[in-house]
Amino acid sequence: MTKKNSSVILMIYGGVIAALYILLTFIFQPISFGPIQVRVAEVLCVLPMFTPAAVPGLFVGCFIGNFLGGAPFYDVLFGSLATLIGAMGSLYLRKYKLGVILPPILANTIIVPWVLRFVYGETAIIPYLMLTVGIGEVIAVGILGSLFIVVLKKYEHIIFKKH
């Protein structure tokens, strides 16, 4: 396979991942936004374990999902950056089986509460918001993401052909 074909395949993977993130954000829209949220789309944050194309795909998907979801600009920006930081950390830790779940959980637990405070004027104290966002991330990435890894491991040779 040529380098050009490999780049095209990675772009396709990234585009599909972005589209899936957007789709899951809107299917589960009632629980995807707010101080108490379980953004099911975050399950995809384990995909850097399988392909580096997941990093830009997750960033773009989160950015567009937040934008189309009506989020204010600074939420679109910083919420997407939290997902990007988490995805980059997951890519870095991809060789450590379940280590990929930690960066998205930590990035969102630390960044999103500040977005809720300063962008939305949420009056709850930051530690409480960290707890609620963190629980949502543990559910989406920690539990669902771990199950997703188990399923994907069985089919990775089919879905994520080496490029």
Describe this structure in words.
- This protein has a single domain, classed as Arp2/3 complex 21 kDa subunit ARPC3 (Orthogonal Bundle), CATH 1.10.1760.20.
- It is about 70% helix and about 0% strand.
- The chain is built from 6 helices and no strands.
- Helix 3 (about 55-70) runs antiparallel to helix 4 (about 75-90) and helix 4 packs antiparallel against helix 5 (about 100-120).
Uncertain stretches of 5 or more adjacent residues: none
State the helical fraction.
Answer: over 70%
Note the run of SSEs as H and E: HHHHHH
What structural category do the secondary elements indicate? mainly alpha
Q: Termini distance?
A: 7 Å
The largest pleated sheet is described as: none
Instruction: Summarize model confidence as the mean pLDDT.
Output: 94
CATH topology: Arp2/3 complex 21 kDa subunit ARPC3
Q: Return the domain count.
A: 1
What is the gyration radius calculated from CA atoms? Answer: 15 Å
What is the architecture at the second tier of CATH?
Orthogonal Bundle
Give a count of the beta strands, DSSP E runs of length 2 or more.
0
Number of helices: 6
Beta-strand content? under 5%
Characterize the overall form: globular
Helices and strands, with pairings:
Elements: H1 3-27, H2 29-32, H3 54-68, H4 73-92, H5 102-120, H6 126-159
Task: From the structure above, extract its key features.
mainly alpha; Arp2/3 complex 21 kDa subunit ARPC3; 6 helices; 163 residues
How would you summarize what this structure contains?
The chain has six helices and no strands.
